Amino acid sequence: MRIKVITRCTLTGLALLFAIPLQAQDWSFEVYLDQQKIGTHTFSLDQNQLQSRANFKVKVLFINAYRYQHQADEQWQGNCLSQLTAHTEENKEITDVKGAIQNNQFVLEKNGSTQTLPSCIMTFAYWNPEILKQSRLLNPQNAEYLDVTVTDEGSKTIEVKGQTTLTHQYRLNGRLKGKDKLKITLWYDQQQQWVALESITPEGYKIKYKLI
Predict the structure, then answer these.
(1) Going by C-beta distance under 8 Å and a sequence separation of 6 or more, which residues neighbour residue 19?
(2) What DSSP element (H or E) covers 59?
(3) Sign of dihedral through CA atoms 80, 175, 150, 95?
(4) What is the DSSP code (8-state) at residue 19?
(5) pLDDT tens digits, residue range 86-128?
(6) Residue 51, number of CB atoms within 10 A of its CB
């Protein structure tokens, strides 16, 4: 159960250009929980259609203690989400989220419950730097529309694909009804491409995305 809480808080949730690119782009990350590799998360963007696929397994004493599978398909119009379908399995718990623009609103459904959001919203689309300008972002896994704050932490040198790389670092915090939900650090290279992500869980565990 503890592992489940850890991942739910940090894996959601979980490319940088100042407009969504028209050409196809892919980002593939190995994902680590502290020093243990737990899986991969890939993002594929083509013609404003984004596919996100994550598959994690956490072992404790060689036993599978936690399983997480997430897939999301997003359709974008400029920097506005126009359609979303997401399916997530955390151990035996299944969550389905879908939404689309209808009558100048974004109508969102989660496991049969409906909410309406503004017509132009963004998910935690790390690959698009416009998220750094937003005050609210949608978590496509659980349909939470979070208040976010972004802090520019300046230039940082990190290792990307085995190479020392000069990047720009941002800290993104997400809150819902005044309660902390996500604490994420993002790095982008000098071409403003998303290259890394890290999150510290409330329990002090570190989730890290390494670009491969």
Answers:
(1) 78, 79, 130
(2) strand 49-60
(3) negative
(4) S
(5) 999 999 899 999 999 999 999 999 988 999 999 999 999 999 9
(6) 14
pLDDT for 65? 75
Range of lowest pLDDT (61-65, 104-108, 194-198): 61-65
- Residue 152's Cβ-count burial label (10 Å; 0-12, 13-18, 19+) is exposed
Longest dimension (CA), the chain: 52
pTM: 0.86
**Distance set, CA 25 to CA 85, 99, 161, 194 (Å):** 20, 24, 17, 11
Cα 155 from chain centroid?
Answer: 22
| C-alpha to C-alpha distance for 56 and 64, rounded to whole angstroms | 10
CA–centroid distance for 86 within its chain = 12
What is the residue-wise DSSP string for 121-188? Answer: --B--TTSGGGGG-SEEE-TTT--EEEEEEEEEEEEEEEETTEEEEEEEEEEEEEETTEEEEEEEEEE
pLDDT of residue 5 exceeding 60: no
211 sits in the region (left: phi over 0; alpha: psi -120 to 50; else beta) called: beta
User: pLDDT tens across 167-183, in order?
Assistant: 999 999 999 999 999 99
Decide if 81 contacts 123 (C-beta within 8 A).
yes
